[in-house]
Each structure stands twice: as structure tokens, then as C-alpha cells.
Design brief:
Blueprint: E1 36-39, E2 60-67, H1 85-94, E3 114-119, E4 125-130, H2 144-157, E5 180-187, E6 190-195, H3 201-207, H4 217-220, H5 226-236, E7 250-256, E8 260-265, E9 278-284, H6 287-296, E10 301-304, H7 313-316, E11 321-325, E12 329-335, H8 344-347, H9 350-358, H10 362-369, E13 374-376, H11 402-411, E14 415-417, E15 420-423, E16 426-427, E17 429-435, H12 439-453, E18 458-464, H13 466-473, E19 483-490, H14 517-525, H15 533-550, E20 554-555, E21 557-559, E22 561-565, E23 569-570, E24 589-590
Parallel strand pairs: 2-9, 17-18, 17-19
Antiparallel strand pairs: 1-19, 3-4, 4-6, 5-6, 7-8, 8-9, 10-22, 11-22, 12-19, 12-20, 13-21, 14-15, 15-16, 23-24
């Protein structure tokens, strides 16, 4: 799930061997509470801030997608079933984000739609000033009319009765849309937003305003009413070639499901223009297929699965660099707590969640399966990369202890019956869904299965491709799974401030049915403007600690992506943009050597 953020840098150049690196995030600015889903072992890449520039022109970037991952959505307004980091990686090449973040979480105003944002002391009125340099590929300027169109689409697509394939995944994040009193065009290049109540200004910028990526009203606003309009956009969002009018550095060329998705430089783009001839997002059936493509040169930007360590010399001997990159994200095992799910009432008990967590050997998963290129997680904020949001007190609240876990279940009336923990007519006989396509995810699922068996929790494994996995876990009516592992959340769009909204609050679009009134109140408290930064962080840490203890998800490990880059491809790591997990591919270049 992924999908997204970061910087102590790893050089992309020297790697004749794999060297473990830890990326540190800047301690100012915001990260995020809402993001894009990403498979756990294919997390978003952190970035270095330096790299070898190249003046080469032409050449093709062949960019490997994670195993068995299709691209399925091509508008910057997502629904839950298609809210993957990998869809975003392509979409952000077509549409300029309202706010582009730097690696230190400051705003890159030069590459953002907004050239500045002002607000009042109370945090109730915000003025967005659009940079007039931006143009659509049909020649028309990007204006407040386009932002208002986006707002109207978001508002309609957020309704509970919004037609399929909606609702909008960002509903509730950044108080969108219910916390907004009005959105008005106060000039050709100015939009004014008024909130119903005061808000932490940085939180609203990073989690609210950031969602308003403009859509081309002149091309897309074609229906007479907004309900027909969102039906029209929803029906066409899965078609890359629908994006005929774009303002980003690239434009669509072709799309073939389970094969490739091709984009080429947009000559109308007003920012730094790409020098490559095209970029191909390449479907890969498995890690083995992707590795073979790297060896043959069919892929020049890809990854190495940890299960393939020991074979990296086949790549480094060709001059490929291999660099570990950690996302600012969290990875987990989900519990199906949706109303009506067979074991929802069981998972609703904190002691059950505690027993399951204490029976996951994350240290062994990190060291043995991911070869040390992973860090165990203990709560909603990762310790690596380190940010101001991480409270070390959350670390290791539930250490691995299957004996204690079993005793905890027994103390609440559970008993072993034929090897399965049983209480009345309830049995801890569960289905664990995992993401297919790579060996490491399967190995981790099998280890969890073995560990849970020690406490009488019988688990049957069920593998699914990532997009099917995501579709199932986002569907409140899908009861074909009880536990789901192999995904996570990279703190990025539709928000960057990691206060848990959209994930852990009641009705969260990216949650799995968890609901707790105190959790809701603590999340809401992080959105309030306070007199000092110390007071702001005090409320944030209260939310963080409570969430770590409550286990709305079972915490897993933060896995590094082992990024592989061919020697003739330049500027990949510096411009992958770990702050969002979405690369600025217009800076990537290819040379002849």
C-alpha cells in the first residue's frame, strides 16, 4: 500500500556492492496523514539531493513496476480501489500538483501550481495564488476556473451516495470537503478558501489545499450537472488516453494493460523540459522476470528484491548501481473489522490485537527475510527516516513474546480445541491474504503463519496481485479475507501531515473498519492551531502513542527498496522525490555510455 517522502544521502554512483543506508528526513515542514498504497516490499524510494547531471538528449527510460502491478487510474483525483503509489507516479507526470514538496518537506513553489499561499492568524481564510506561467497543452492558461472545477468534482465525488467508482479517497483528509465553508475565485489566478473553523495552517496546506490539483475545465467540464460530470470522469479515469489535455512535463502515448504504459515529453510544459524521447512504465510478472530484464538491459531503472541478494554481481558487473532507499511510511497487517465481517467482533477486542502483534517476529522478518534492509515498526510513525513526528517512546511496545500472547488469550476465556483457539462458537481460524509476485512477501506471510500457530491461531494463506489485494481491502463488503499483509502507507497525497486522518479515524477511506472515539478526538486535536510548536507536538505525540498502543493495524517492518539504476541513466535518485514517493522524471536523463 504506498504509497507515500525524505535525506542523509546514498550515492547512486559507486555501488559495486550493496551498502545499507538510512535516509534521514528533514525536521521541519510536514510529512502526511494520507497517502498512496504501496506493496510493502516495493516501498517508495527515498532520494538523494545530489547526482550526476547529464546534458544528453534522447534515449528511453524503461521503468520497472513492482511484480504483477497494473496501472489502473489516470486522474489526480482517486478513489480508494485505485489509490496506489504507482498510479500516482504516472499521474504526477501528467498533472502539476497544487503543491510540490522538496526532500525536506518544504514547498517547491517553482514546480507547484501555487506560487504562494497566504492565510490569516486564525487559520480560517487561505488565499492561493496560481503561478501564471502554467499552461495546458491546448494552449489555455491554468486558472482559478480549473481549481474550482477540481473542487466541485471533489465535493460531489466525496458524497456518501456518489455513483461508482466513487467516493473520492481523500474525503475527510484536510477537512475536505465538510470543513470548507466556501471556495471562490477571487481573481483569474487567485482562489480563496474559507473554513468553518480555525485550523493548524500547515496541516491545512499540506492535507487540504494539496488535494486541489487542477483539472482542465476547458476539456473535461462537459456535462450539464455535477453528478453526470463525476460519472463521466469516473468512467474515463481508467483510460490513459483520455488525458489529452495536460499541464505536466509529459503527455500520454499508449497504454497496454499487463504490458506497458508510455509517456513522452509535453512540449507545452512551462517548467524544466525532459530530454528523453519517452518513458515506459513496464509491467513485470515477477521478481525473476524483472531481474532478467535488468540483466539484459530491457529495464534501466528497477529494483532488486531482498530474496535476490547474492546475485547482485550479475548487475553490478554491468555497472548498475544498487542503493537502499527507505520511505517515510508504515507497513502493516490489516484486520477486517468492517461491519459484517466474520471476525470483526474478535478483532474489535484490543487484547486479541495485542496477542496477534506479540506473535509477529518482526526482528526475524527484518533480519532474515529482508537481510537487514528493513526496520521493525511499533506505531504510526517510522523511526527511519527520522522526523520531528517520531516519538521514541512508541518503540517496541509489544515485543515478540508468543508465550505471553497465548496466556493473554487464555486469560480472556480462549482455549485450545484441536489446536485452534476457541471461545464459544468463535474460532481463530483465519484467512491471511498477501501480495503475490515476490518471494519476500510470501516468506514473511509464511513466517507469520508459523508464529501464530504457536498460540493457536490457524491461518490459511491466500495470494492476490496487488491491485486485486487493494480492491478487496478497500471494499467494506468483501469478507473473503480476515487478515491482509504485504501493503502499507507512504505519507503523501492527498496529505503530507501524518496525523492519522484517512487511516485510523472512524470511517477512514483507507481504513478497514477500526473505530474508536478517543482515537478520533486525538486525531482532531492535531488539526487545531496552537500558540507554540511545543504545544502542537505535544498533542501530536499523544495521538501517536495512543495509536501505537491501540493497534488499528498490526505493525510490520519498513522495507527498503533496493533501487537499481543502469550506468547510462542519470539523476534518478536525486529526483525520485522521496518527500512524495513520486519522481520528477523530467530531470532523468540518458547518455550514450
Amino acid at each position: 500500500m504506498v504509497q507515500k517522502k525524505k535525506r542523509v544521502l546514498m550515492s547512486a554512483a559507486a555501488a559495486a556492492a550493496v551498502v545499507l543506508g538510512v535516509a534521514g528526513c528533514g525536521t521541519t515542514g510536514a510529512s502526511s496523514a494520507s497517502g498512496n498504497s504501496t506493496p510493502a516490499n516495493q516501498s517508495a524510494t527515498n532520494t538523494a539531493t545530489t547526482g550526476a547531471a547529464s546534458t544528453a538528449t534522447g534515449g528511453v527510460i524503461e521503468f520497472a513496476l513492482p511484480p504483477a502491478t497494473n496501472l489502473t487510474w489516470f486522474l489526480p483525483i482517486f478513489n480508494a480501489a485505485n489509490d496506489s503509489l504507482y498510479n500516482s507516479q504516472l499521474v504526477d507526470q501528467l498533472y502539476i500538483p497544487m503543491l510540490q514538496l522538496n526532500n525536506d518537506y518544504s514547498i517547491n513553489w517553482n514546480n507547484s501550481i501555487a506560487q504562494k499561499i497566504t492565510y490569516n492568524k486564525q487559520g480560517t481564510v487561505y488565499h492561493i495564488f496560481i503561478n501564471p506561467k502554467w499552461k495546458w497543452s491546448n494552449g489555455q492558461p491554468v486558472t482559478s476556473k480549473d481549481v474550482l472545477f477540481t473542487w466541485n468534482v471533489i465535493k460531489a465525488a466525496s458524497a456518501k451516495n456518489a455513483p461508482a467508482p466513487w467516493p473520492f479517497v481523500g474525503v475527510g483528509t484536510g477537512d475536505i470537503p465538510d470543513g470548507i465553508k466556501s471556495v471562490q475565485a477571487t481573481g483569474k489566478y487567485e482562489v480563496t478558501i474559507t473554513l468553518k473553523q480555525p485550523a493548524n495552517q500547515q496541516w491545512f496546506e499540506y492535507n487540504g489545499i494539496v488535494q486541489l490539483t487542477p483539472l482542465p475545465a476547458s476539456y473535461m467540464d462537459v456535462k450539464s450537472n455535477i453528478e453526470d460530470e463525476i460519472k463521466y470522469l469516473g468512467a474515463n479515469a481508467t483510460n490513459l488516453m483520455f488525458d489529452k489535455v495536460v499541464d505536466g512535463p509529459f503527455k500520454p502515448v499508449s497504454a497496454k494493460s499487463s504490458q506497458d504504459w508510455v509517456i513522452a515529453p509535453n512540449p507545452s510544459y512551462a517548467g524544466h523540459k525532459s530530454t528523453v524521447s519517452k518513458i515506459v512504465f513496464q509491467y513485470e510478472g515477477s521478481n525473476a522476470a524483472e531481474f532478467a530484464a535488468l540483466r539484459s538491459g530491457q529495464i534501466n531503472v528497477g529494483y532488486l528484491d531482498q530474496s535476490q541478494l547474492g546475485s547482485e554481481s550479475a548487475l553490478t558487473s554491468l555497472g548498475d548501481s544498487i542503493t537502499p532507499e527507505y520511505p517515510f511510511g508504515i507497513f502493516w497487517t490489516e484486520m477486517n473489522m468492517y461491519s459484517g465481517a466474520p471476525h470483526a467482533s474478535v478483532f474489535d477486542q484490543l487484547y486479541v490485537r495485542q496477542a496477534l502483534q506479540m506473535s509477529i517476529d518482526n526482528n526475524t522478518i527484518a533480519k532474515s527475510i529482508y537481510k537487514g534492509f528493513a526496520e521493525p515498526l511499533s506505531g504510526p510513525i517510522p523511526g527511519t527516516p527520522r522526523t520531528q513526528f517520531y516519538d521514541p517512546a512508541e518503540n517496541n511496545l509489544y515485543p515478540y513474546n508468543p508465550t505471553k500472547a497465548k496466556q493473554l488469550l487464555e486469560s480472556h476465556g480462549w482455549k485450545l480445541v484441536n489446536g485452534v483457539m476457541t471461545k464459544g462458537n468463535q474460532k481463530l481460524n483465519l484467512t491471511l491474504m498477501y501480495v503475490t509476485g515476490n518471494q519476500s512477501s510470501l516468506d514473511a506471510a509464511e513466517l507469520m503463519q508459523q508464529d501464530w500457530a504457536q498460540i493457536g491461531v490457524k491461518v490459511s494463506l491466500k495470494g492476490e496481485e496487488f491491485m486485486t489485494f487493494l480492491s478487496k481491502t478497500s471494499n467494506p463488503k468483501d469478507y473473503t479475507w480476515d487478515l491482509a499483509t504485504g501493503s502499507g502507507w507512504v505519507y503523501n497525497g492527498p496529505g503530507f501531515y501524518p496525523s492519522g486522518e484517512g487511516l485510523f479515524n472512524t470511517g477512514a477511506p483507507s481504513g478497514t473498519g477500526y473505530s474508536d472515539k478517543e482515537e478520533d478526538a486525538l486525531i482532531n486535536a492535531t488539526h487545531v492551531p496552537y500558540a507554540t510548536q511545543q504545544e502542537t507536538m505535544q498533542h501530536f505525540y499523544q495521538y501517536e502513542m495512543y495509536t501505537a498502543k491501540q493497534l488499528p493495524f498490526l505493525w510490520g517492518v519498513n522495507v527498503a527498496t533496493l533501487a537499481v539504476v543502469a550506468p547510462n541513466v542519470h539523476n534518478v535518485l536525486p529526483y525520485y522525490n522521496g518527500a512524495t514517493g513520486v519522481p520528477e522524471m523530467q530531470y532523468w536523463t540518458v547518455s550514450n555510455k
